[in-house]
Design goal:
Elements (H helix, E strand, L loop, with lengths): L1 H8 L20 E5 L4 E2 L36 E2 H14 L6 E4 L16 H19 L4 E3 L18 H8 L9 H7 L2 E5 L4 E5 L20 H19 L2 E5 L11 H13 L4 E6 L6 E6 L3 H5 L25 H14 L4 H5 L9 E6 L10 E8 L12 E9 L2 H7 L8 E5 H4 L7 H12 L3 H11 L18
Family: Belongs to the acid sphingomyelinase family.
InterPro entries: ASM_C, Calcineurin-like_PHP, Metallo-depent_PP-like
Main location: secreted
């Protein structure tokens, strides 16, 4: 089997170091979350929307795909956008970061009906992006995860999937030696960063994903159930050893996208180990927002008011994003209803008794590099634990800065200059959040839906990277899709 996979790899100068490089040399107090690059080597500047920006128009058209991408359209990211994004991070942040979480979907979608992607293309695109990450960050710890567009067939991963051997080799430098057998079995692993008293758990959300029809639910014997059991062991071990945990994956936990038993299992663990888990980080949805759940409210959690979100999706649509003109209002209304439905005792949040666990679980969803709206990356700031601090007094998320790039304006105003990202907002300055705990996010959510209209407007504007202020090229007919 290894020989067959090696034929796909063609390893070059980026052969992996088999050591565990998960220890930052210095604690700076920042980490990067980057997600959903969706790099497309077939992207061409000037390509048509109908061809997924793969072919030039037969006649002159008003709209032309840009050098750095085609915001709002079904086109993936040109290699230039991914490279210039990483170049900007290298210039501005590389020497200030302690580690990087990288939540998948590096390969292009299958949007071009005349040029369907193949397995080897998906693997080669992941190899390309992995090498770009290595070139950018060097020995800095990186924690990757699989996206639903990084596997073949689309959305499908099975137990001991041969595909995992490829990614095991590709990411070997980042997978600790004692986690490699688990990764080969299920595509998940955990990395400890001892200097920060931190464990980063990289989940394989394909086992929880409804669209992975090859896997049974989380109650039946199989890889999904095994994954939840492994997840619990990681959390219990972290509690026993006095470590905090960051949980990361590709598809965010929701009753819309997870099998019911998997969503319940995830929520149960998130609530039970709320004293251990610092935060949950995901991508996949392209939109900048957070999901917030009350794990004691079983009716709201496990009833299904979410199905309407699928109504306008095409049968072959690749993932649950929503066209600008038809579905944004629905998703925003659903999110507003989700926040409104939360009813948690403020006294429990302010001063919980030792025996009472917080029922809140906050799932942070970062926006993507692919310009579904505009490309974006996120820098988190955290409190740096001291050596004598006990569990619960150390690693805490305090703030993040959301960066984005209006590539449409940039290409017009700076056609010959390397791309620069700009600050969109920070949670401390723009949302007045003291930290990023579930309790603080809950208070913000309740304020927004109970009369804080200005904050809600700012939040939803940032949700789509301020693209709603711009004129959106094209419409829903002709060659828009």
């Amino acid at each position: 089997m290894a020989t067959a996979w090696n034929q796909c790899l063609h390893w070059n100068s980026h052969d992996p170091d088999t050591g565990n490089e998960s220890v930052p040399k210095k604690k700076h107090g920042y980490f990067l979350h980057i997600t959903d690059m969706h790099v497309d080597k077939n992207y061409i500047q000037g390509g048509t929307k109908k061809s997924a920006c793969h072919r030039n128009p037969k006649e002159e058209r008003r709209y032309k795909a840009g050098r750095l991408g085609a915001p709002f359209e079904k086109c993936d990211a040109p290699v230039a956008l991914a490279q210039e994004t990483l170049d900007w991070i290298s210039r501005e942040w590389k020497d200030k970061l302690d580690f990087v979480i990288w939540t998948g979907d590096n390969a292009r979608h299958d949007w071009d009906r005349k040029e369907h992607r193949k397995r080897n293309q998906i693997l080669e695109l992941n190899k390309l992006v992995t090498n770009m990450m290595i070139d950018t960050f060097g020995d800095l710890p990186i924690i990757p995860t699989l996206g639903n567009n990084d596997v073949y067939p689309h959305n499908v991963v099975v137990d001991r999937d041969p595909l995992l051997e490829y990614y095991h080799h590709l990411w070997l430098r980042w997978i600790p030696a004692d986690q490699r057998q688990e990764f080969l079995r299920g595509g998940y692993f955990a990395t400890d960063i001892p200097a920060l008293k931190l464990r980063v758990v990289s989940l394989n959300t394909m086992y929880f994903f409804k669209k992975n029809k090859a896997v049974k639910n989380c109650r039946k014997k199989g890889p999904a159930k095994d994954h939840l059991e492994w997840f619990e062991k990681q959390l219990q071990n972290a509690r026993n050893t006095g470590m905090r945990v960051i949980v990361m994956g590709h598809v965010p936990a929701s009753p819309r996208d997870y099998r019911k038993t998997c969503f319940k299992g995830y929520m149960d663990l998130a609530a039970e180990y709320g004293d251990v888990i610092v935060s949950h980080h995901y991508g996949h949805l392209n939109m900048d927002h957070y999901l917030l759940y009350d794990t004691t409210d079983s009716f709201s959690l496990y009833s299904q008011p979410y199905t309407y979100l699928d109504e306008d999706e095409d049968e072959d649509q690749d993932e649950p994003t929503f066209s600008i003109s038809r579905n944004i209002a629905k998703y925003v209304d659903w999110l507003h209803d989700l926040y409104s439905s939360l009813d948690v005792d403020q006294d429990v949040l302010e001063d919980p008794p030792p025996e009472v666990k917080s029922p809140l679980v906050a799932i942070q969803v970062s926006p993507s590099v692919i310009p579904k709206y505009y490309p974006a990356v996120r820098i988190y700031q955290y409190s740096v634990p001291e050596q004598d601090e006990k569990q619960g007094d150390g690693f805490e998320l305090m703030n993040y800065t959301q960066y984005y790039a209006n590539i449409t304006h940039w290409e017009i105003e700076h056609p010959e200059e390397p791309l620069e990202y700009q600050v969109e907002y920070t949670t401390q300055d723009d949302y007045d959040l003291p930290d990023l705990s579930a309790s603080s996010l809950f208070k913000m959510a309740k304020y927004m839906v109970e009369g804080g209209n200005d904050l809600w407007s700012a939040y939803t504007r940032n949700m789509f990277l301020r693209s709603q202020n711009d004129t959106i090229p094209g419409d829903l007919d002709d060659d828009a899709y």
